[in-house]
Structures are given as structure tokens and as C-alpha cells.
Design goal:
This protein has about 575 residues and is α/β, with parallel strands linked by helices. Helices cover about 35% and strands about 15% of the residues.
């Protein structure tokens, strides 16, 4: 520590140049804030974090003021308490009074602050916000009436995702956060990642809900309702029910889904294995026949839409493979339907995903067959938790159950899809085996694991040096693409995940999760990989059987028809 300052009449050690808020938090002093985000440029927009500088009697924003020698800070003086309370009251004065009907009820930072500051009557009355509700997006609903202009969504959209589809518009008291030309989110550059929802302190941004459609399907005796769930769901859902972060409740989930009335329960990790069979074959084909490099993964719909809008010159680089969600949907409504004498139009296919962009992906025209969607509805992790509660299912009292078969078995490689680097690691394991006839030693590729925004390594495949890279967070992907635009040519295969940390940090996960929670989720996925016996996609017995009786081989005519797709340039979206 460099020096000390006085905080609440005590000498506290601080680091020269650090922000006052960081110093306070590190020393166990909680300071409320609505606009601050760790590792992002401070704005001081909300003013909730004010503290009193007793040297001059002024209130200062602790999130944007660095520590200085000689400071005398009071974090709970009467003027500080009154200022914070008045700021929240002003925010509430024009905020809609619909907490009971808001999806963020009991998980709203503004609501929590009002309780902490003992705001139990209305001293300030203002005209209620009355903005147009934007429901144009297939994934995200914007309610500007609930926006408090904290700017978090603007920051994450621009700095982390590199998209900047929303920003502050107008000035002064007329300021709002909106899209270009005030149009709907559907024709903006939004990639549907949902990271804006994750940082929004109120209900101004939420995912589009499919509850009623799913409930109708479950109640319809003529419908066979089938559900699949993504690899990361089993290690993140427990947190929604007060359990420890990272706890894998796979078997409990299967039981809960059957309690809800689903006829078949499948694990999307199975179709992650299917994706690897196709994707690794595509990589090998490009290596052996001189295809376009670097090949880039296509299982993240947020990344795919970004490429279509901002990097259309890279569309030939994208793998033609559908995502695991869509591969499962296609197999369910083709082969599985035939095997069970079902018509595809009588199947209602639901997926549970950590991602809001999956809602967009499911309704893409390319993801239909003869006008019938491969996946009919998508629930996020937090929506799934609410759905369980809606039906009165107590997951604390359920015994674990297994998935249905076929389409339920998985390798641990498929499970790794839930974390950044997992798709690449799974693909390399199978590609290595197909090229050499030998399994990759110890399977793990530690250089690809962890939360770094970019990870790179070289894999020696019998003398072939494969340059591979893994990026998470679209802004990091943009930097790598710029390097390739400028001539970099040493990479063969790139994994891109839109959300920080990959699917475990997806825009549909629990709001309010900490970095420690994400670390726990990733650790569980890696522990699962270490302790189970089938660790490569090409040894999944149900995958082997599916190719034997139906698909033939990877990249066959049947697999191309069902499991592959194409992408389109969207750069003229606002023209």
C-alpha cells in the first residue's frame, strides 16, 4: 500500500491512483451504485455512490474520483444519506409503479436500494415515464419507461461486444437510451447476445418470453412435447434455487422436466458431439483439399449475426455446421419422428439455453424444413427456473433421473461446449484422432481453458502445425479479425463465443452472478471431463449408431441437408 487516508475516522491503507470506490470496497465498506461496472470506464452517472470529502465539505462520486493523500472521507454523513435517498426518490418519481408485474421484481437493484435506504413513502412526485415498448426483437424486449439512464447497457454493448447498437440520444432532461433513428431493435445492429440484460439494474431490458406457447403445447394432448437443454444449464441452474454455484444438478433437471409434462428429455451435449463429428470433418476436408482458412466456429448465434453484419467477408470462413440446438431440433423432427411414427408438425420442440440469441436463431428461415421450425421455443436459464416455480415443482425433493435415449447420451467433449475453449478442445480431440488414428495424449488442451479474452496455441498433428485460437467477447473477436484483415495467416481454426467466458456467462444466465460463480461453473465442467470415461465425441455410442442407421458419415448428403446451413450478409440492415 502507498499511503493511508482517513475513512470514517479511521486510517485506511490505499493504493496510489486507485479509485476511491475500489479502496472502500476492498476495506469492507459497501457503497451503493447503479452505474458502476468493474473494469469499465467510470461515468459517475447515477451519483448514488457519493461520499463526503470532509476536507472541503463537498460530496464526490467515489466511482470516478481517485484517492489522494490527506483525504478525509465520510461515507455515512447526514448529507450523504440524504443525497442518496433523494437520488433514488427522484428515480422512483417517474418510474412505473408496476413492481408486482415486473420480471425483475425481487431482483431489481433500484428496488433493493429503495429498501436499503428506507424509502417507504413518496416525497417526490413526477410525471411517469410513458415510452413505447419495443417488442420488435425476437430475443430482447426494451422498456424505456424503466430505464434509469445508468449507461451500463451502452458500455457493455460497445466495449465488451463491440456492437454499439444502443446509445444515449437527445440531451438534458430529454435524454434516453435508444437505437439508431429511434427504430426497433430488430433492425438495429443488435446481435441478440443479451449482455445488456445481464447488466441492466432494472426491468428496462428483458428476454422475450415464450411461456404461454409452451404451456399451450404441454396442455395439448395432440402434441408430443420434447425438450433439450444446453451443457452449461446443469451447472448454472442450481444458483436460481439457492444452491451453491457450479453444482451440477443434471439428474434433478431431468426429473423436473418430466414433472413439468415434457414427453421426452434430451441433453444438447449429444448434438454437441454431433456438431463435432461434422465440424472436425469439415476442418479435415479444408486441410486436405485446400479450403478457406481460418475456419471459424458457427455454434454461437450472436457471433454468427455479428459476422453477417460487421464481417461479411469472413462468412466463407464460418463452418457450415448448424449449432447443437439446431442439429438436435433437426434430428428430432426427422429421424426421431420417423422412429416413433410421429409427424414433425405434431412435435413441439423446446430448448433450454443460456443464451437469448438462441431465440433469434430458432426462428431463422434457414432453420426450418418445409415451413416447420426445427426448434419451436427457447427458454433461458432464468426463464426455466421461473417455469419450474410456476408449476410448483420442488427440485429439492426430486430424485435424479437419466435422459431419454437415443439422443440423450453424451461424451464429456460435448459437455465442454458450455465454457470458452470447449468447442475447440472437443473438435481438436476428434480431428486429431481422424488424422492420426491415435487419441490426443491426455485429451486436455490447457492453453485453451480459462477466462482470458483470447487464447492461442499450436497443435502438432503428425507434423501438421495447426494454429488455433479461442476468443470470447465479440470485441476480442473483432481485434483478431482485424489482424487477419491486415495479413495474419498462421491460424487454421478459431472458436468465437459472443459472451464473456462462453455459455456459462451467457445472456440468459442468472442475473447478478459473480466472477466466482462463473469460475465455479467452468470448474465443474472441467471436473466432469476429467472423471468420466467417454471423453471424445467419436466414441459416443449413440452418435456412432445414428451415423450407422441414418446419417451414413459426416458430410454425407443426409447430414448436409439436415445439419448444415448457410449465412447471409446483413450489412444493409439500416438501408
Amino acid at each position: 500500500m502507498d499511503f493511508t487516508i482517513e475513512i470514517n475516522n479511521e486510517q485506511v491503507p490505499v493504493i496510489r491512483g486507485e479509485l476511491l470506490l475500489d479502496a472502500l470496497n476492498r476495506n469492507g465498506i459497501k457503497i451503493p451504485t447503479l452505474c458502476h461496472m468493474k473494469d469499465r470506464m467510470p461515468t459517475g452517472a447515477c451519483r448514488i455512490c457519493v461520499v463526503e470529502n470532509k476536507t472541503n465539505g463537498k460530496l464526490i462520486t467515489s466511482c470516478s474520483v481517485p484517492v489522494e493523500e490527506g483525504m478525509h472521507i465520510d461515507t455515512q454523513s447526514s448529507s450523504v444519506a440524504e443525497a442518496r435517498k433523494t437520488i433514488v426518490e427522484l428515480l422512483l418519481s417517474n418510474h412505473p409503479d408496476d413492481c408486482l408485474y415486473c420480471v425483475r421484481n425481487k431482483n431489481c437493484e433500484l428496488q433493493n436500494l429503495a429498501e436499503e435506504l428506507h424509502i417507504d413513502d413518496r416525497r417526490i412526485r413526477g410525471q411517469k415515464n410513458d415510452f413505447h415498448l419495443d417488442v420488435s426483437s425476437t430475443s430482447i424486449v426494451r422498456d424505456p419507461s424503466k430505464c434509469i439512464l445508468c449507461g451500463r447497457c451502452v458500455s457493455v454493448c460497445e466495449d465488451v461486444m463491440g456492437v454499439a447498437c444502443i446509445d444515449f440520444t437527445y440531451r438534458g432532461s430529454k435524454s434516453i437510451i435508444g437505437t439508431t433513428f429511434g427504430k426497433g431493435l430488430n433492425i438495429s445492429s443488435c446481435i441478440n447476445c443479451g449482455q445488456c440484460i445481464m447488466v441492466c439494474p432494472t426491468g428496462a431490458l428483458t428476454e422475450k418470453n415464450h411461456f404461454s406457447e409452451i404451456q399451450d403445447a404441454l396442455a395439448n394432448k395432440k402434441k408430443t412435447v420434447i425438450v433439450q437443454y444446453a451443457p452449461s444449464i446443469t451447472v448454472s441452474l442450481a444458483e436460481e434455487f439457492g444452491m451453491e454455484a457450479g453444482l451440477d444438478i443434471n439428474g434433478i433437471m431431468n426429473a423436473a422436466l418430466r414433472k413439468l409434462g415434457f414427453d421426452y428429455v434430451f441433453d444438447t451435449s449429444f448434438s454437441a458431439d454431433l456438431t463435432i463429428m461434422e465440424e472436425s470433418a469439415e476442418l479435415i476436408q479444408r486441410v486436405q483439399k485446400g479450403g478457406i482458412f481460418p475456419m471459424i466456429t458457427s455454434c454461437c448465434p450472436g457471433w454468427v449475426k455479428y459476422a453477417e453484419e460487421f464481417a461479411p467477408e469472413f462468412l466463407p470462413n464460418l463452418s457450415s455446421c448448424k449449432s447443437p440446438q439446431q442439429m438436435m431440433g433437426a434430428i428430432i423432427k426427422s429421424w426421431f419422428a420417423e422412429q416413433n411414427n410421429l409427424r414433425s408438425e405434431d412435435i413441439y420442440s423446446v430448448s433450454i439455453m443460456p443464451c437469448t440469441a438462441k431465440k433469434f436463431e430458432a426462428q431463422r428461415e434457414e432453420m426450418t424444413s418445409k415451413g416447420i421450425s426445427d426448434v419451436d421455443a427457447v427458454l433461458t436459464t432464468r426463464e426455466f427456473a421461473r417455469f419450474i416455480k410456476l408449476y410448483g415443482v420442488d427440485i429439492h425433493k426430486l430424485d435424479p433421473e437419466i435422459t431419454d435415449s437415443p439422443l440423450g447420451a453424451r461424451s464429456t467433449a460435448g459437455k465442454l461446449f458450455g465454457a470458452s475453449g470447449g468447442v475447440m478442445e472437443a473438435a481438436i480431440r476428434t480431428a486429431y484422432f481422424k488424422l492420426t488414428g491415435k487419441e490426443l495424449l491426455k485429451f486436455q488442451i490447457k492453453e485453451l481453458r480459462g477466462f482470458a479474452g483470447r487464447k492461442e496455441t499450436i497443435i502438432d498433428v503428425d507434423g501438421l502445425k495447426l494454429g488455433i485460437a479461442v476468443v470470447n467477447g465479440i470485441a476480442n473477436a473483432k481485434k483478431l479479425l482485424d489482424e487477419i484483415r491486415e495479413g495474419r495467416n498462421d491460424l487454421h481454426f478459431i472458436e468465437v463465443m459472443a459472451c464473456p467466458g462462453g455459455c456459462i456467462g451467457g445472456g440468459g444466465q442468472r442475473i447478478g452472478a459473480s466472477m466466482d460463480d462463473l469460475i465455479a461453473r467452468m470448474k465443474t465442467l472441467h471436473q466432469t471431463d476429467a472423471k468420466e470415461s467417454i471423453r471424445v465425441s467419436h466414441k459416443n455410442p449413440e452418435i456412432i449408431e445414428l451415423y450407422r442407421v441414418f446419417l451414413g458419415e459426416p458430410l454425407s448428403h443426409t447430414s448436409h441437408h439436415l445439419l448444415h446451413t448457410h449465412y447471409m450478409e446483413r450489412s444493409d440492415v439500416l438501408k
